[in-house]
Amino acid sequence: MAIVLAIETSCDETAVAIVNNRQVCSSIVASQIPVHQQYGGVVPEVASRQHLETINWAIAQAMEQAQLNWGQIDGIAATCAPGLVGALLVGLTAAKTLAILHNKPFLGVHHLEGHIYATYLSETTLDPPFLSLLVSGGHTSLIYVKNCGDYKTLGQTRDDAAGEAFDKVARLLKLGYPGGPIIDHLAQAGNSQAFALPEGKVSLPGGGYHPYDASFSGLKTAVLRLVERLEKDGGQVPVADVAASFQETVARSLTKRAIACALDYNLNTIAVGGGVAANSGLRKNLQVAAAKHNLRVLFPPLKYCTDNAAMIACAAADHLSLGHTSPITLGVESRLAL
Ligand code: KG4
Ligand code: ZN
């Protein structure tokens, strides 16, 4: 199985891509961010409608950019879980229709597996095992990648995902949506040591703390209380300093857990994925810590950190080459463990 077309519509990007194994032939990402910005976040019904209006155009664009005809496509895939149900249905139904129409094997892909595979698009010779740090708007996980389809989740967030924390803090600082890139940009001009914020820890029943699980909701509340206090004192909120202190706390928490996990499991490579992998604070923290421990840390190019279909196609190409396919009756799931 070599050439795969995949569709990704789990949230607010209508994405279609074609890969030849780990080589990207085309990757179209039609972002809905400007549409959702006016509501301050993703509105599920609006997302579904936007996907429906854009999907055929995106498929045609992907085919045209790759300069391929349907006879050259070996398989069709789409994200089937987790995500917004209506949004997922648009992509999955489109993929099934194409598979039936052109008589191709069909495969549903887990969104997080796609984020794991994003690393392969730039590191085409990377082989498992390695540790995947997935940090997106919906997930924060440390995953032991043993092989294609063989994953073990070693750590996760107990409440907000890292990207969700960025988005919520940006909202309370009245900065707009999505919050991650805005906070990242503002943090460059701020002092990350200006405010000491609590790094969330997850207690273990027998005492002590979970070494890999994270918690971000307490941190978000701490930022809220800090802003309230600063406002009450009548002064202007030093937004860049708050952003930088918050970003530093998240980056430190993720770095500490990822490094501990990689060392404990004897994995010398950490592959970061998901939208928050674009964060400059996390990149810096993790690179410095990894170098100290002689670990390799890999970040996909920014365009493959956030949601895209090339990562889904890459995962599908591996599965299809192993003979894995999905029944055409496959449904979507809003929540599904990897
Ligand atoms: O992976 P992704 O595109 O979608 C999900 O699967 O959730 O991640 C989107 C998330 C959003 O929460 C966004 O604020 C965050 O990634 N994000 C960032 C940055 N760029 C995107 N967070 C921190 N720093 C960034 N530079
Ligand atoms: Zn994602």
Automatic annotation (TrEMBL):
Q: Name one GO molecular function term.
A: iron ion binding
Residue numbers binding substrate: L134, V135, S136, G137, G138, D167, G180, D184, N279
Identify the Pfam families for this entry: TsaD
Which EC number applies? 2.3.1.234
Q: Which InterPro entries match?
A: ATPase_NBD, Gcp-like_dom, KAE1/TsaD, Peptidase_M22_CS, TsaD
Q: Where in the cell is it found?
A: Cytoplasm
Q: Which reaction does it catalyse?
A: L-threonylcarbamoyladenylate + adenosine(37) in tRNA = N(6)-L-threonylcarbamoyladenosine(37) in tRNA + AMP + H(+)
Give me the Gene Ontology terms describing cellular component: cytoplasm
> Which residues does the UniProt record annotate as the domain Gcp-like?
23-313
Matching entries from HAMAP family are given as: TsaD
* Name under which the protein is recorded: tRNA N6-adenosine threonylcarbamoyltransferase
Gene name of the encoded protein: tsaD
